[in-house]
Fold this sequence. Notes:
The structure holds 2 protein chains of 2 kinds.
Chain A: H1 3-6, E1 16-23, E2 26-32, E3 39-45, E4 50-57, E5 64-71, E6 75-81, E7 108-114, E8 123-128, E9 131-135, E10 143-144, H2 146-149, E11 165-171, E12 179-184, E13 187-191, E14 199-200, E15 222-227, E16 235-239, E17 242-246, E18 254-255, E19 264-270, E20 278-283, H3 285-288, E21 298-301, E22 309-311, E23 329-331, E24 339-342, E25 348-351, E26 359-362, E27 368-376
Antiparallel strand pairs in A: 1-2, 1-27, 2-3, 4-5, 5-6, 7-8, 8-9, 9-10, 11-12, 12-13, 13-14, 15-16, 16-17, 17-18, 19-20, 20-21, 21-22, 23-24, 24-25, 25-26
Chain B: E1 2-6, E2 20-24, H1 32-42, H2 44-50, E3 61-65, E4 68-69, E5 85-90
Parallel strand pairs in B: 1-5
Antiparallel strand pairs in B: 1-2, 3-4, 3-5
Helix pairs in contact in B: 1-2
Amino acid sequence: MNSTTEQRPTAGRAIGTLVLIGTTKGLFTLRAGPDRDTFVLSGPTFRGEEIYSTCIDNRGPQTRVFVGSVSSHWGPVLRRSDDLGATWREEDHAALAFPDDTGASVARVWQLTPGPADQPDVFYAGVEPAALFRSDDGARTFSLIRGLWDHPHRPQWVPGGGGMCLHTILVHPTDPDRLLIAVSAAGVYRSDDGGDTWSASNRGIVVPFMPDAPTPEFGQCVHKVARDAGDPDRLYLQHHGGIYSSDNGGDSWEPMTSIAGMDFGFPVVAHPTRAGHAYLLPLESDGYRCTPDGHCIVWKTEDGGETWLPLTNGLPQSGAHLTILRDGFTTDGLDRCGLYFGTRTGELFASTDDGDSWRELASHLPPIMSVRAAPVH
Amino acid sequence: MLVRVRIPTQLRNLAGGASSVDVVVDSTPVTVCSVFDSLATTHPALERRVRDETGRMRIHVNLFVDGDNIRDLDGVETTIGDGSDVSIIPAISGG
């Protein structure tokens, strides 16, 4: 969730760094001191539950942590911890539930995103089936955003491989009424009025999985979108086939310079403080979906996607056929930023120097679906 | 009518650790559905593990009335007799 990076953590108050690792079998955590030197792994919590979404919220005086999980038997649950995961609680009544008239039910919580910095009780949630919810009471209760649910395009959306999910929520840092979401496979949608009305925002994104590779108004399989630290109208997007950027808040998209011919991947992460800096983890083709030729490489741009630098120091460069999913890559929001990514084969790699060097912090975990990190206080 | 709902180990934390709860049901006839409607008022977090917000039973949860799977009876419209109990059992599914 790039929302975590949109909060500007106040490192001066931090007592340490928390990394939440959501797996198919529960939640694992890594804790480190403020220097991020030594990380201690613990878990799992919520054994057997799939953790697709977590959120570390530092807007208030105390760090709040949220986990959206789903049990194959018992359904989805949203839980909250005010003591960094030592104890958890859930509301008696489901925090996230569709209204009766929709006939829909929440299958999975894909995204939990804090609202504006000055509205600490506002949260957004993206769920499957694709819908956006808003909370105004600290994620105790959420309301369906009808403007998107009732959008005339919605009946024509089709699920991607992960399901009919709303997986990306970006709140504009200076105008909280400007919301951007992404759905697989519907594409990017934007609202400029707090969610009352929405428009598709996919101009220029080629759909390679349709005849003649058209650029339809919607139907793109957008995997993730991230917002630039310096220019809130600059966006980076990883599509099912291609990497794109926008300099106008998503009015239109342009292809970024290709990375060694690889156009497939899931996550994209923007540096939390440095304009023009972003990271990608491209995978080999939509048929294979693993790091190419056994090389695990994070690619970094420092010029808004004009050029890309391979980051390999400490990452496995042979025999590493890894898959990193859309929410499996994140930053901790600090200036000398920590970067963390988890794989479907249970490795957790981290860098605490903007990606210059990496180390493997955890191995042999269950498949990792989501990773979030932030300083905590 | 009082109906006893037996709770699997995984969900007992939602009922204060109890292995069963007694539910007062006023409807006529008393059905599995009305038992869980009543449970939703006394133990909402437990009830929503068994049914989603539309009222549909979760597909990997089985309910037994006096030992019989309601899928072999009348589903959630299965009537409950006085002194019967309802058991919540996770299905042999998952991964």
